[in-house]
């Protein structure tokens, strides 16, 4: 590992480490003045001290007994969190279940719809290819178009709006899929479903990470995988439950239509739920909206000191990252720095293998 990389790691691990008390307090005052949050200065000063040294509240008299209790329990009772945080967790879990159901409901439908669409000949290579094309249409969209929209959507709209838009697309395209009457129409509907799958799969875990406190951040982010798997299992169960439904007069293939349309229901629930969820504080800070970021952090944390700590620490991390990016090409460094190259290659192989084996 080069010296510059080691220095970058050290700076990002805690940009406040090694700063004297007087300079830290001066930096906080300048920050409060420049960002228009001087009314938060008392909380920001205490928050900056905690951000620099998480255990300093046990030694310094500036912290009240209530502050000390909350900051101590943050470590000793890390799963005792504000209801709003768990509201966000439930929303993220449902969004992951949407992902799993979008992937899974086609499993049962593909047993039925090919015959109705005239592509059900098991001895025809053409029919087999068409069924495979229809089933993989969302992932074709993800690979060619939708995944590349993740950054611009998040950059301009934020996490909440991106989740809302993608889940609404999932809901509408799932219903659309259930109303199709030709194989090429179903292909188009499922292709557009990819616009709901790609950006959502990258946004929801990041959103969960940016709202979560550090002690439980990793566990909450990894819930995406667990609830995606739950969504896959739920999708298969729904396929089984709808398989034996008989067609009413005037409707052909009601069972497979219900299978495909049902995957949109959790997406609609997430769309309604995300309206009341907090926006990512990190995204708000990156847009210079510090007052809003602090208010959202207050919804997610027990005390104003915790919110002020996270507000200031996110700010200095973003400043450090911005400083490190100057004069550097991250795309080039992904290949020229050995550890980046090795990690990228390993990730690509694992991700490709996971999808190529057909487990989803």
Automatic annotation (TrEMBL):
One of its GO terms (cellular component) is membrane. Residues 88-360 form the Major facilitator superfamily (MFS) profile domain. GO terms for molecular function: transmembrane transporter activity. It is found in: Membrane. The keyword Manganese does not apply. Gene3D superfamilies: MFS general substrate transporter like domains. The chain crosses the membrane at residues 129-150, 162-179, 185-208, 220-244, 256-277. Keywords: Membrane, Transmembrane, Transmembrane helix, Transport. InterPro entries: MFS_dom, MFS_sugar_transport-like, MFS_trans_sf, Myo-inositol_Transporter. It is a multi-pass membrane protein. Coiled coil: none annotated. This is Major facilitator superfamily (MFS) profile domain-containing protein. It comes from Rhizopogon vinicolor AM-OR11-026. The lineage of its organism: Eukaryota, Fungi, Dikarya, Basidiomycota, Agaricomycotina.
């Amino acid at each position: 590992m080069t010296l510059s990389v080691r220095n970058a790691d050290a700076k990002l691990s805690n940009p406040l480490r090694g700063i004297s008390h007087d300079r830290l307090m001066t930096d906080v005052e300048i920050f409060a003045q420049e960002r228009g949050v001087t009314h938060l200065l008392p909380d920001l000063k205490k928050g900056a001290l905690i951000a620099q040294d998480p255990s300093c509240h046990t030694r310094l008299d500036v912290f009240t007994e209530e502050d000390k209790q909350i900051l101590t329990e943050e470590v000793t009772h890390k799963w005792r969190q504000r209801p709003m945080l768990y509201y966000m967790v439930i929303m993220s879990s449902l969004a992951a279940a949407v992902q799993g159901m979008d992937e899974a409901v086609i499993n049962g439908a593909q047993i039925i719809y090919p015959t109705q669409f005239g592509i059900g000949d098991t001895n025809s290579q053409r029919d087999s290819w068409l069924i495979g094309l229809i089933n993989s249409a969302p992932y074709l969209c993800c690979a060619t178009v939708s995944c590349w929209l993740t950054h611009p959507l998040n950059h301009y709209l934020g996490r909440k709006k991106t989740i809302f838009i993608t889940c609404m697309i999932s809901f509408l395209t799932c219903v659309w899929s259930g109303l199709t009457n030709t194989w090429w129409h179903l292909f188009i509907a499922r292709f557009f479903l990819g616009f709901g799958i790609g950006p959502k799969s990258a946004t929801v875990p990041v959103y969960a990470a940016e709202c979560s406190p550090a002690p439980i951040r990793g566990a909450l982010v990894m819930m995406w995988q667990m609830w995606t798997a739950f969504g896959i299992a739920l999708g298969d169960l729904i396929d089984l439950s709808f398989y034996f439904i008989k067609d009413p007069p005037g409707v052909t293939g009601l069972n497979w239509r219900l299978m495909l349309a049902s995957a949109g229901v959790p997406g609609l629930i997430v769309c309604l739920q995300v309206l009341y969820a907090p926006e990512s504080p990190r995204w708000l800070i990156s847009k210079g909206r510090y007052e809003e970021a602090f208010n959202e952090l207050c919804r997610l944390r027990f005390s104003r000191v915790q919110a002020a700590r996270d507000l200031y620490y996110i700010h200095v991390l973003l400043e450090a990252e911005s400083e490190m990016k100057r004069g550097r090409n991250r795309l080039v460094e992904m290949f020229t720095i050995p550890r980046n190259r090795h990690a990228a290659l390993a990730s690509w192989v694992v991700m490709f293998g996971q999808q190529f084996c057909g487990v989803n």
